[in-house]
Amino acid sequence: MLLTFPVWVERAVLRLEREAPFAATAMCEALGELTVLIDVEGERAMLSAASGRCALLPSAPAAFAVELRTTRRAIAALARGELSILDAITSGGVTLRGPVAALAGVYDALIAFLEGAVRAPSFADTLDQFLRWQRLRDRHVARGTE
Amino acid sequence: MSSIAESLTDGDYLRGSPFCHGGAQGHKEWWHFCVYGDGVDVLINFSLVDDVRVGAATGAQCGRLTLLVRGDAWHGEVLQFAPDAVRAPAGGHHFVFGDNAVRWRDGRYFIEVNAPSLGITLSMVMTPEAMPSLANNIALEDGPPIHWLVMPRARVDGTMTHRGRTHTFQRAPGYHDHNWGHFRWGQDFAWEWGFALAHDRTNPWSLVFVRLSNRAHTRALMQALFLWRGPYQHRVMRGGELTVRREGLLRPDTVFKVPRVMRLICPSTATDVPARLLVDGQGDGDRLRLAFEANDLAQVIIPNDRTRGQTIIHEVSGAVSLRGAVRGEEVALEGRGIFEFLGA
Fold first, then answer.
1. Are B156 and B188 in contact (CB under 8 A)?
2. Does B268 contact chain A (CB < 8 Å)?
3. Higher pLDDT, B211 or B20
4. Is A118's CB within 8 Å of B262's CB?
5. What is the reported pLDDT for B16?
6. pLDDT for residue A145 is more than 70
7. Domain limits at A84?
8. Nearest-neighbour CA in chain A from B265: distance (Å)
């Protein structure tokens, strides 16, 4: 099954709450009142912890504190350990925009998310489902260039 | 069967976790092997640990194979295996993880690694050349004791293909240890653990150094320097007979990290690994001075079991010098060693 980006984020956060609750709590604390717009090749997810738990907002609010843009390819490279977060930012694979204090909060939330992701038993399968799309696309591109 | 082989048959069996039989959770156990080839060092670690993660099935265990190859640079990964791909029965003498295995048979360890995703294929036979030393019930401050067996000196024959290049091992020096017990990553302890093998294969001396401490390295729980002469343990200096000094800090430009995904969480190249570790031993008319000069390192990064944060095992390659006299006989060794420094 192929997962869209918002569905993957939603499932990943739910799994973190269930399987690595301390990481989910730390992620919420780091986000605080911040709303983050995450855009992966046009697929948008709006993440907020304002309700006390991390969740996707059902519709896009007019304002958000931080905007994070990236690609499936960059997420795949990060997951394989080919890039560090700093590498991804300096190479343009990840773009972050927002006030410095808000960016620091989002970075802390991201680290908490990752600490949960490496501990949650079911996370690898969810990530694999999400990245399958990219693998299919890479195969398609490779065939097209043969 | 030789006395070395008999000792290992009797002592180097898998203890196994009592968790799946209703016993305590949190057991960890591994067989660790190091091989010094011509221009390439290989570290292989088969480990089986209780799965203590939330949501894990009762009695579930994780099989992990850590592979590190040090040539011009470090390379490797931690490979994980599903429970149905793992065979490592308690009381037995083998780990089988998918297409990878280590088996104790006829007084030798047969090691097979097939990791196409890393470009590593390896087939080796390790023949122990020294009697093992068994240490049971090493106390930690805030948990049950841990246990180990160490066999410091072996001959290794075989081949490894690494990224398309074939390395042949003929009578290459090797090392093996086995650790087990109930402990948590993130618990208040750390270890410094290293071995040394002489450049000159006719040199009879080999050694292992170990120090357990609290996580901040401010209080030693135990320390010992084990010295072998040929196949036999010759001298052990312990506790107050030893003075340990850490000098400087190793400051590598880059740090190779496994599992690679942990680079995201621990990107820093700063470490608390000393540039030099000096151990002076004196007792009963014997004296030894061990100097370990760190060259470079790789990190094995393990998420703590019950808290945020990670435990970092630094695998540090370096030069070792040992000088002194035991029972009136001069001791001298120049060689290579891999020391482990556990950090946060």
1. no
2. no
3. B211
4. yes
5. 94
6. no
7. 5-145
8. 6
Distance CA A96, CA A47 (A): 14
Show me where the domains of chain B are located. Answer: 1-183, 184-344
Provide the greatest CA pair distance for chain B: 59
Mapping DSSP to helix (H, G, I), strand (E, B) and coil, where does residue A107 land? Answer: helix
A20, B53: Cβ pair inside 8 Å? yes
- Does B51 touch chain A if contact means CB atoms closer than 8 Å? yes
Judged by a CB distance cut-off of 8 A, whether residue A81 touches chain B is yes
Bond from prior residue into B173 cis (ω within 30 degrees of 0): no
Contact list in B for residue A27 (CB cut-off 8 A) is: none
ipTM at complex level: 0.86
Please give the residue of chain B at the shortest CA–CA distance from A27.
B308
Residue with tokens 């180990």: B148
Q: Given pLDDT bands bounded at 50, 70 and 90, which one contains residue B213? A: very high
- CATH hierarchy code of domain B184-344: 2.40.370.10
A80-128: pLDDT as tens digits: 888 899 999 999 999 999 999 999 999 999 999 999 999 988 888 888 8
- The one-character DSSP state at B10 is H
Q: Which residue has the tokens 């390790």?
A: B126
Which of B55, B261, B262 comes nearest A122 by C-beta? B55
Structure tokens at A18: 């269930």
* Interchain pair A19, B53: CB under 8 A: yes
- Do A26 and B261 count as a contact with CB atoms less than 8 A apart? no
Task: Give the tokens for residue A144.
Answer: 């097209």
Interface touch A19/B259, C-beta < 8 Å: no
- Right CATH number for B1-183 from 2.40.370.10, 2.30.30.280, 3.60.15.10, 1.10.10.60? 2.40.370.10
CB–CB contact B267 A85 (8 Å): yes
Most B CBs within 10 A among A70, A115, A122, A127, hence the mutation to make, goes to A115
Does B1-183 match B184-344 in CATH topology? Answer: yes
Provide the H-helix boundaries in B149-283.
Answer: none
A-proximal residues of B, 101-120, CB under 8 Å: none
